[in-house]
Amino acid sequence: MTALAAPQSDAASVVGSDFGDRRYVQRALAGTTYISNPVPAETGTNVVVVSTPVRRDGDIVATLNGAVYLSETGAFDLLQSDLPDSSGVTVTTDGGADIYHRPPSPNRSVTTHTAPLSEADWVVSVSESRAVIGPTIQRLTLLQTGSVISVFAVIAVFGWWNYRRNLAQVEALIDGFRALRDGAYGTHVDVGGADEWERIGTGFNEMSDTIDQSVAENRERARQLHVLDRVLRHTLRNELNVVRGRAELVASHATGEAAAHAAHIISRCDSLVETADKERAISAVLDTDTTPEPLDVARITETVVERAQADAPNADLTVDTPPTAVAAAVPQIGTAIQEVVTNAIQHADCTAPQVSVSVSEPTATEGTDHVRITVSDHGPGIPRMERRVLNGDDAIDALHHSQGLGLWLVYWAVTHSDGDLDFEDNTPQGSVVTIRLPARDDTA
What we know:
InterPro entries: 2C_sensor_his_kinase, HAMP_dom, HATPase_C_sf, HATPase_dom, His_kinase_dom, Sig_transdc_His_kin-like_C. By secondary structure, the protein is an alpha+beta fold. The protein has helices spanning 23-29, 77-82, 130-181, 195-253, 257-286, 297-311, 333-346, 384-391, 406-415, and strands spanning 34-35, 39-40, 46-56, 59-69, 87-93, 98-102, 110-116, 122-129, 293-296, 316-320, 326-329, 354-360, 370-377, 420-425, 431-438.
């Protein structure tokens, strides 16, 4: 210490002493102004030490230190003069002791904010009475609440408007699809709205026009085929009757080779007439008005076997059916079963063909819901080419095609009954044809 200024003090006993280990001196030598925590003096008042560096040519060469009685200083007068009565101030040391405290008025419902000081290990707390700022807070709260409500109201109104608009667009599309379902092909819809809705509406209208054009072409094609079918069937039957009649006339007067040729002509005429009858049955199956109905398949199968046995008395036919077996099928299913049985008899390579026919109902143990009609024979079997064409594995062309309409009649009758048709090889030879039809609980 080089000098001491203090009233009524013995400077001589202190000047020249080393205070370098004091905290406030070290803080100042480090380059910061430092204010210590209050220290009780002998007089009973609190004293704080202020220390600041002394620089020469930028270098710290000394510190200037001073002791200040808090009770004799106006350090906090600035706080008292700048703050209203509704604001309170508290200065606290790092040890938790209050250096200065002035509560707000009124001293209730207080909000407090704190901040540390850089020059001292003190914390300044400013408290504000909510009773004073309450009206301002209420006004701000009401303003914010009103703004939020207004924003939500705008969003709700816009959302409702957008919802109603989208709902109208969706309803327009639904009405368009209902019109297509009811056969009003070519129906147009106007959904409007954004580009996305415009594209959807345009796509729907283009699809509707395409369907309308396709349906019109199919109807015209169906009408043409119907006309050709009627004309060809009528002409074919009439002309075949003429040919067959002439052949019978020749056969009745001819002998030898001429009679044989006449008999062959009669046989081919009968075959063509039979083909025409099958074509008519197929046309009936493919008719759009033909729908499956409950039928007792067991009774139908028994009738088919009885007729087949009467037409082929040398055949060994066996039938095994339950009392009833009701399935959903088109009315031509009996003709299809007859075709399978007749095919097994006619294509047998022996004079006494053996054909077994059975009908089985769905059982709980098997977990099936179909009625099965099974026809087994020991003939040469159905060619695999025929099976592959019917199953769609091979295309119908000049080399791979079904040799007759019989199996096509069976295939379409089963298919339009929502059933399945399977072909398997029998042991040691022959074929097993299985027709599966959806079971029903009631009869027609």
